[in-house]
Structures are given as C-alpha cells and as structure tokens.
Design goal:
single chain, 488 residues, alpha/beta, FAD/NAD(P)-binding domain, 2 domains, five-stranded parallel beta sheet, 13 helices, globular, binds NADP nicotinamide-adenine-dinucleotide phosphate
C-alpha cells in the first residue's frame, strides 16, 4: 500500500433519505467535492418516498421534523402529511444544489474493501463498478417491508399490498378492506380507509397504546409568515422543540413521574374514547404504554367504532381466495388485504453483500444482530460508516439532529484522508465491545425493557435504540477518540 498523500477523497453515500441528504449537505459544506450519493429509489426522501399509503402523516411535529440547515416555517399542518414532507425533501435537495451529486434508481448490491488500495469497490444492480475511498451507509432502519407468511396469502383473489409499497391508483373506495397490523402505520391507514371503504376489518394480533393528539390540526398561515419574517424566532422554536424531544428521551430511558404521567395519559386516551367495555378490553394492550414505539392518533378510536369497521383479535388461521379466516372458524370477505405489518428493521444495509478487511462479511459480523461503535463505525470495515445506524435514537431524539452530528463526526475522518494524514481508519473491536456493553447496561431502566415484544428488539435479542440523553449523544459524536481507532 502506497503512503497516504493529500488528495480529495472519493466518498460514496448510499441512500438519499434523511441520513443521506444530511451527510451530503455536511460533506459539501465542509468542502468535499468528490461525493456521490447512490439511491435505489426513483427519488430522494427515503421512507417518505417509499411510503405513500392513505393517511400517512408524521407524528413528530413538522417544526421539529426538519433539517436544522433547511428550515421550513410554513407547514400546512402541525403534523404534516407524507406528501408534503416528501416535497420538502425534494425541495431541500434542489435549493441546496445537491441534486447533481445524487444518482437515483441506482441500487448498490455489493461493497468490497481492498486493503492494498485502501479503497472500496461498489457494485450496482446494473453491474456497474464504482470505487470510493470512503463509503457511508445511510440506508435507514425501516426500509425492508416485512411480509408475514400466512397460509393462502398468495392465492388471494383480490389485491394484497404492503403499506410501504402502496401502488398509485389502488382503489379502496366502496370496497371491503382487511388491514393487518396495528403499529403507527396500521392505525393511520385504518383511520384513512374507513372514510370511504365499504368496510374495514382490522386484524390486531397485539393491541397497542394509542396516545390521543389532534393530528389533523392546521398550522395558522400567520405562524408560517411570522416565522419566515423572523428567522431568530424560528430558530428559537426549533431549539425549544429539540429540547422537548430531549424530555421524551428522558421519559423513555429513566423511570420518573413524567413517564408515569404519559402512561396515565395513554390509558386515559383509551378510556375516554372507547366506552364499550368489551371493545375497550380488546383494545387494551398487555404491556406498558411507551414500551413499543408509541402510536399517536387523534382518529383511530373513532374510526374503529364506526358501523362499517370491525376489530378482530382472533388469530388469523388462513387467507382464503375471498377473504380471511380466523382460528375461531369465521371467514370475513375482503377485496383488498393491506399489510401494515412493519419492516425487517435492523437489516440496515443488508442484504447488500458487504466484505471488509480479510474477507470478513457483514452478514457474519452481524449474525447476532447489528452492532456498531457509537452508531457509526464497525470493526473489520475500514473507511466505512453508518448514519442513523445501530443504536441511533429512533423515536426519541430528533433524527435530523442525530444524522447531522454523525455526519460531522465522519467528516472529521474524511478531513484526515483529504490531508493525507491517514489512508484508512478502522474502529477497534475492543472500543466497539466497550461501547456496546455500556449501551446494554444502560438499557436496564428503559421503558423498552419492560416486557413487550417490538421491532426495537433485533434478532440477537438486544434493544437497538439509544438509551442515553442528548448531552451524551453530543459527547459520543464529538471529536473522535483516536485511541479507539486503528489508523494507517
Ligand atoms: P410495526 O410497528 O412493526 O407494527 C407491525 C404490526 O404488524 C404489529 O401490530 C404486528 O403485530 C403486526 N403483525 C406483524 N406480523 C403479523 C402477522 N403475521 N399477523 C398479524 N399481525 C402481524 O410497523 P409499522 O406500523 O409499520 O411501524 C413501524 C415504525 O415506523 C413505527 O414504529 C415508527 O417508528 C415508524 N412510523 C412512523 C410514523 C410516523 O408517523 N412518524 C408512521 C408510520 C410508521 P405484533 O405487535 O403482534 O407483532
């Protein structure tokens, strides 16, 4: 391997969602010129590009769910719908001149590290080969749809659709729709479909707590105008909401009166909105509020109590050509089956074939579940980083904030590559194990660890979340500790 010399590093970012757009912006801002984003979808936006189901809304207030570097004061609603959020991502990319660095409809299927060249070779689905000095995986966590294996599903006569692959023009008005799954997605899609479907049957395996919030409330036009006119006020609001998300992180990670208050509010949301004791019993979860990713809705309980809506908690036995039969022998007809059954979370960049130093594969490295050092570096995979990777704060601290801190952390290493001070960097196994032990230890008092089964748990049984607060996040992603890395 030739000694390092100053040169512009070739950086490839995989994925153009929240994480990828953030990384691209941060790297460009820091003067890196040879940056390419490869995105398998036909547009930027990540989850907001892929998810187009009826009722899609972000349950994080839009004044918080935005990039710190691309403020948008004028949302139509306090909680904006998916289409508006997707348009925002597109506009950010256009306005910041990022589009020319992004190649859409380009799927990376393999990445291999060549130690002698200190470079990655990437292969796309079209068999194109690209080379990079550093690769940044910004592939997201909720990305690969999870399709349940239910007997008969393939022989259903009507349409079967996963919410994350909603086809344009799918007709549901006047038809009998069956919805499976009651996470954030299932609750949103049921609330929307019930408006014009002939019937909606909601199959619920494990009910979830649903916090009431006025999700449909509009943002006054004057609010947007004032915030646009006074950017300082907008920055202050953004900072206040960031601080608020820190409180949520605190509520989930440590038992406190605040946690108990939110849990009491979740129970009250159910009690006040569902008067029928039998239905309420069916809708009452066995676990504690907040244990799973909290579902928020202002409409679901009303929707499920409509005459043409039905809640079914009997287990599904099979799908028949004309509908769904439950274990109690009842068959309910359906024209469309909607799978709101979630994602194979924690795949991150898998099933890409990723081969690091000495032929180590990521499949093998992550056979007991995904793990990384400080959410971003993986031993055995030099010059490779994740943004919003394992143990990133999902559902508590702002994603955009985390992505930006992580991108700046990575940019530190890219700067050393550019200056010719290093040719490769790899986190040590020891530092990664220490970090993961610290994370596992801190999971103890979290609400996610109170006995529920959720997508927060990865295949190895550990909770793939961030059990610390915002201050610790900033500390972890401040200037890298060189002693935790092997640099060449
Ligand atoms: P999810 O939370 O993983 O929920 C999947 C649902 O499908 C669960 O109710 C699960 O039941 C059910 N399910 C899975 N397999 C099943 C089967 N074979 N038979 C019957 N039911 C089955 O997925 P999601 O609702 O798509 O949400 C995933 C995450 O996306 C959320 O937690 C959130 O982070 C994000 N999201 C956010 C928003 C937002 O507004 N910001 C909106 C949508 C999604 P069990 O619980 O019994 O397994």
């Amino acid at each position: 391997m030739s000694p390092a010399r100053p040169r512009e590093p070739r950086v490839v970012i995989i994925g153009a969602g929240v994480a990828g757009i953030t990384a691209l912006h941060v790297f460009r801002e820091q003067g890196f010129t040879d940056v390419t984003v490869l995105e398998k979808g036909s547009d930027v936006g990540g989850v907001w590009h892929w998810n187009r189901y009826p009722g899609l809304t972000c349950d994080v207030p839009s004044q918080l769910y935005q990039f710190g570097f691309a403020p948008k004061p004028d949302w139509s609603h306090v909680w904006a719908d998916g289409r508006q959020i997707q348009r925002y991502h597109r506009r950010v990319v256009d306005d910041l001149g990022l589009d020319r660095f992004i190649r859409t409809s380009t799927e990376v299927v393999a990445a291999r590290w060549y130690e002698e060249d200190a470079a990655w070779e990437l292969t796309t689905a079209c068999d194109e080969t690209l080379h990079a000095d550093a690769v940044v995986f910004a592939t997201g966590v909720l990305h690969h749809p999870s399709v349940p294996s239910i007997p008969g599903l393939e022989d259903f006569d009507g349409e079967v659709v996963h919410t994350a692959r909603w086809p344009d023009g799918l007709a549901t008005a006047g038809r009998r729709v069956a919805v499976l799954g009651t996470g954030s997605t299932g609750v949103q899609v049921v609330s929307a479909l019930v408006r014009d479907a002939a019937s909606v049957t909601h199959y619920v395996r494990s009910p979830q707590w649903i916090l009431w919030a006025p999700m449909g409330v509009r943002q006054l036009v004057v609010v947007g105008s004032v915030l646009r006119r006074f950017p300082t006020a907008h920055r202050a609001l953004y900072a206040a909401l960031q601080w608020g998300s820190g409180i949520l992180a605190d509520i989930t990670t440590r038992p406190s009166w605040r946690r108990r208050a939110v849990q009491a509010y979740a129970r009250l949301s159910l009690r006040l909105q569902v008067r029928d004791p039998d239905l309420r019993a069916q809708l009452t979860p066995a676990d504690e509020p907040l244990c799973k990713r909290q579902v928020v809705s202002g409409t679901y309980y009303r929707a499920i109590q409509q005459d043409h809506a039905e809640l079914v908690t009997a287990p599904i036995a099979e799908v028949t050509p004309g509908g769904i039969r439950t274990a109690d022998g009842v068959e309910r007809p359906a024209d469309v089956i909607v799978l709101a059954t979630g994602f194979q979370a924690h795949n991150y960049m898998l099933p890409m074939e990723i081969v690091g130093r000495d032929g180590r594969t990521l499949d093998d490295e992550w056979r007991h579940g995904p793990r990384a050092y400080r959410m971003t570096a993986i031993p055995g995979f030099p010059n490779a980083f994740t943004v919003l990777g394992p143990n990133s704060p999902t559902g508590s601290i702002s994603l955009q904030h985390t992505a930006e801190l992580t991108a700046r952390y990575i940019a530190h290493w890219l700067g050393l590559l550019r200056d010719g001070r290093i040719s490769s960097v790899e986190v040590t196994e020891e530092a990664t194990s220490d970090f993961n032990a610290e994370v596992a230890d801190a999971m103890g008092p979290t609400v996610w660890n109170t006995g529920c089964n959720s997508w927060y748990f990865h295949s190895g049984g550990a909770i793939d979340l961030f059990p610390f607060d915002r201050a610790r996040l900033a500390e972890l992603l401040a200037e890298p500790d060189r002693s935790h890395f092997r640099v060449r």
